[in-house]
Amino acid sequence: MKTPGRRLSALTAALALTVAGGAVAGPAVADPRETEKTPTATGYGGAVSTVDPEASAAAIEVLRKGGNAADAAVAAAATLGVTEPYSAGVGGGGYFVYYDAKSKSVGTIDGRETAPAGITPDAFIDKSTGKPYRFTPELVTSGVAVGVPGTPATWQRALERWGSLGLGEALKPAIKVADRGFVVDPTFRQQTLDNKARFAAFPATSELFLPGGDAPAVGSIFQNHDLAATYRLLAKQGTEGFYTGPLAADIAATVQNPAKAPGTTLPVPAGSMTTADLAGYRAADQDPTRVGYRGLDVFGMAPSSSGGTTVGEALNILAPTNLSGLSTAGALHHYLEASALAFADRGKYVGDPAKVKVPTAALTDPLFGKERACLIDPLHAATKPVAPGDVANYDGVCPASTAPAASDKDTENISTTNLTVADKWGNVAEYTLTIEQTGGSGMVVPGRGFLLNNELTDFSTVYDAQDPNRIEPGKRPRSSMSPTIILKDGAPFVALGSPGGSTIITTVLQTILNRVDLGMTISEAIAAPRASQRNTAKVTAEPAFIAAYGDQLTPFGHQFTPSGDAFTSAAEIGAATAIEFGPGGRLTAAAEPVRRGGGSAMVLSAGR
User: Fold this and answer.
1) For the chain: N or C, fewer Cβ within 10 A?
2) What is the DSSP letter of 490?
């Protein structure tokens, strides 16, 4: 885990002459700035919250020089591609939600990865055995799991729609960090060790992340000159330099013919992505989801993400009940039950709307939520899994009608990152981006300095023609990313989001419950222990949640299982970031105080 508080200065570490990632020994490459990790910052003129102080500092630098929230969000995201390369980067995708103060409207960009045109329904079947590849480590460490990346296109589109800078200017802070390096902390080293067998399977990956055969030492300087060169290519050529030309050819070659190290036992199934798939990729503009809750307008990400519909539906289910008038246990009981109901509908109905019919309007209809709320017994938890609702037959009146259940299995992984930015003009960016699991596919594009995603594992792993999340060419796998912007009286009130796979939805939902219904401050709402009910027999919960509320919720019939990442020993759910907007332009940026070692909240000015 990262240690909350002050990070070692890059200068101090460089003076120790400890080198990682191909760095040149000596202090000349270092930056003497000491980056502080502060989970809450209050002030004016602009604010940012991320998991990493380098990324937060990059956003603040852009804001200080006159850039807006879109510019700063791209700068922070690109920097996270350097310092958090196992969670995000140009080899992945994500969703960008933006409040434009001038038009007083919320817009979104779907930058989700897509399946290549050549993918087949049996892509996840081992041809030699006729059986599905084992999910981990075989399927997640493969070319067949790699989707066409959407992150560079998302950055370009966000700057075109809302930014004031070109891509080259927005990338400057990240290029600086990639070249001079950043200080390796315990989280970076541990995540590398967690992936050591996978990374060692690929010469390009082991050369970058396992110098000398070991993970970079804590306190050493990690530089990524190849990534800096990739960013310079994007700065010069724009996204054309990524989606066409030599870089696109390198990406396609890595997917189709993964270069394996001698002696690796991993099969590394090859994928079918071509340069034509890359050249044809487009980030999609789309309308946000919108629901009302306690007098607030909650805007989220529409499908292909299930975040906006599932958070929105759950809020609609909770809306008829005065949760603030209940005990904390009673409110949490309703939260868990509403989440299970919404997840049942997520599995039944949500996929890529370009390929399947998604009833977004019905799922976010207050009448549908009110009818689903009929199934909540205020004293007893329902037997899970619960059945989905009938989106073709509802009227908001009890009893609620149901539909046959979907054959849905959640395979979405937890390693993602989120950032929140606000500027002095009132613009707000909420951006969640990912390469799927920690370390993505494990494959670094040789000479380019970034990992490719394994996002296609978010498709249902067994093909079912009735499943809205089935594999199809050109399709975007369903996501749970839930970047959310909440307005009050038409102006920003809170912006928030989180990583965490399908627990993203419950993290965002529980944070809203904590802030709006339970009266917590935004910092308290983020810090509070979490539980995630995703329509399963047992509720996944952080040990601290079980300790605090388990005895109070057990009489309702809830059963708990401690949270834990299938790939590491982490027991955390999510790593949220948020900004709350107060009177007189006062901004409160909030990040995690403990999870992932604590996040980094910064403001442009502590005073007026």
Assistant:
1) C
2) T
Cβ-contact 600, 56 below 8 angstroms: yes
User: Would the CA dihedral through 132, 138, 139, 142 be positive or negative?
Assistant: negative
527 residue type, one letter: A
Single-letter amino acid code for the residue at 367: L
Strand partners, 366: none
pTM for the model stands at: 0.94
Q: Give first-to-last CA distance, the chain, whole Å.
A: 36
Mean pLDDT of all residues in 24-33? 33
- Identify the active-site residue in 364, 416, 507, 588: 416
Entry field: residues in the chain: 608
Q: Which pair of structure tokens corresponds to residue 556?
A: 């309702």
User: Residues near 451 by Cβ (< 8 Å), separated by ≥ 6?
Assistant: 85, 86, 89, 91, 205, 435, 439, 440, 441, 442, 443, 444
Q: Token digits for 192?
A: 């590398």
**Per-residue burial over 375-385, b = 16 or more CB atoms within 10 Å of its CB, e = otherwise:** bbeeeebbebb
CA angle 71, 169, 254 (to 5 degrees): 95
Q: What whole-number distance in Å separates Cα of residue 417 and Cα of residue 108?
A: 17
Q: Which of 481, 460, 456 is nearest to 469 (CA)?
A: 460
User: Helices 307-318 and 503-512 meet at what angle, rounded to 10?
Assistant: 40
Beta strands at 539-541 and 560-562: parallel, antiparallel or unpaired: parallel
Question: Residue 580 and residue 50: Cα distance in Å, rounded?
Answer: 14
Q: Residue 11: its pLDDT value, please?
A: 28
Torsion of CA 6, 434, 579, 165, to 10 degrees: 100
Residues with Cβ within 8 Å of 287's Cβ and at least 6 positions away in sequence, in order, are 107, 108, 302
Q: Cβ-count burial of 140 within 10 angstroms (0-12 exposed, 13-18 middle, 19+ buried)?
A: buried
**Torsion angle of alpha carbons 238, 287, 58, 608, nearest 10°?**
140
* Alpha carbon 337 to chain centroid, angstroms: 24
Q: State the DSSP code for 88.
A: -
For 293, the token pair is 């809750």
**Is 416 a known active-site residue?**
yes
Burial of 262 (0-12, 13-18, 19+ CB in 10 A): exposed
Burial class (CB in 10 A: 0-12, 13-18, 19+), 519: exposed
Q: Which residues pair with 57 in a beta bridge?
A: none
Q: Which is nearest to 420 in space by CA: 337, 499, 335, 318?
A: 499
Q: Where are any strands of DSSP class E within 194-283?
A: 221-222
Residue 21 has pLDDT above 60, yes or no: no
**Nearest-CA neighbor of 577 among 594, 601, 556?**
601
SS3 assignment, position 147: coil
Peptide bond into 320 cis (omega under 30): no
| pLDDT tens digits for range 499-523 | 999 999 999 999 999 999 999 999 9
How far is the C-alpha of 56 from the C-alpha of 599, rounded, in Å?
A: 9
Provide DSSP, 199-216: HHTSHHHHHHHSGGGSPP
Q: What is the DSSP string of 291-332?
A: EEETTEEEEEPPTTBSHHHHHHHHHHHHTTS-GGGS-HHHHH
pLDDT band at 596, cuts 50/70/90? confident
Cis status, amide bond into 543, omega within 30 of 0: no
